[in-house]
Amino acid sequence: MHYDPIKKSLGDVFNRTPWLRRLFYHLLDLLLLRTWHVHRELRAWSKGRTQEPLTILDAGSGYGQYTYWLAGQSPKWEILAVDVKEEQVADSNRFFREIGRTNAQFAVQDLVLYQQPNTFDLALSVDVMEHILEDVEVFKNIHASLKDGGMLLISTPSDQGGSDVHSDGETSFIEEHVRDGYNIHEIQQKLRTAGFERIEAQYSYGEPGQISWRLSMKYPIQMLGASKWFFLLLPFYYLVTFPFCLLLNWLDANTKHESGTGLIVKAWK
């Protein structure tokens, strides 16, 4: 299934007013399990650092919801959010100007080429690397762009069923993915090749998370892919499923998983 047209349709709906976009971000924070895991890691990283003038790279910013969250944690943090999609970058810059978040800026950049040596204290890459074939080049660029001691945080599908692929004969649920998911040892080796020395990787999307993902993302996306008229049914669908998804997300984010369809990876320069 091609996910980008559905994402564009959602963006068109929620970009109509700043209030709607804020609502959209809050809904994504609640529904997307990856956000629960990423926010947990970001809170741990930022503990005691909100008064420091830090510089952050959102590498593949998408809708901009992680930049929005980070920009709200401290006015002393400067966030550069980059993406290859010009329209999304322009929309995000306009929205952030409208709400007065002056410590964040969006720019069009290709992560395979982009490098800003010794600039960032933190780099964030959430569900981006599965879209990029030249992943080691991106890791090298981010490593070069981090300051000494800087951290890269990655959320990406694993090879344990990520992208909803569970056997050799299946293809990715999201057709824009260039890989179905990373082996946990493979991504660590690629990060070492790029220059990172200290690396921590763990599974996300265990059993609770996989059920939540199907309820909160897969089935609604399939419905929207079949017809845009399902937009009218989504509020009623989520009215029923939303409480279950919240509970499942909480369980997944607060449990250690021996295996899972997602990976959370931290690497330090």
UniProtKB/TrEMBL annotation:
From the UniProt annotation, give the residues forming the signal peptide.
Answer: none
Question: What InterPro entries does this protein map onto?
Answer: Methyltransf_12 (IPR013217), SAM-dependent_MTases_sf (IPR029063)
Give the superkingdom in one word.
Bacteria
Sorted UniProt keywords = Membrane, Methyltransferase, Transferase, Transmembrane, Transmembrane helix
A Pfam family the protein falls into:
Methyltransf_12
Where are the bilayer-spanning segments? 229-251
> Which residue range or ranges hold the Methyltransferase type domain?
57-152
- List GO molecular-function terms, semicolon-separated: methyltransferase activity
Q: Tell me, which GO biological process terms does this entry list?
A: methylation
What is the designated name of this protein? Methyltransferase domain-containing protein
Species source reads Hymenobacter psychrophilus
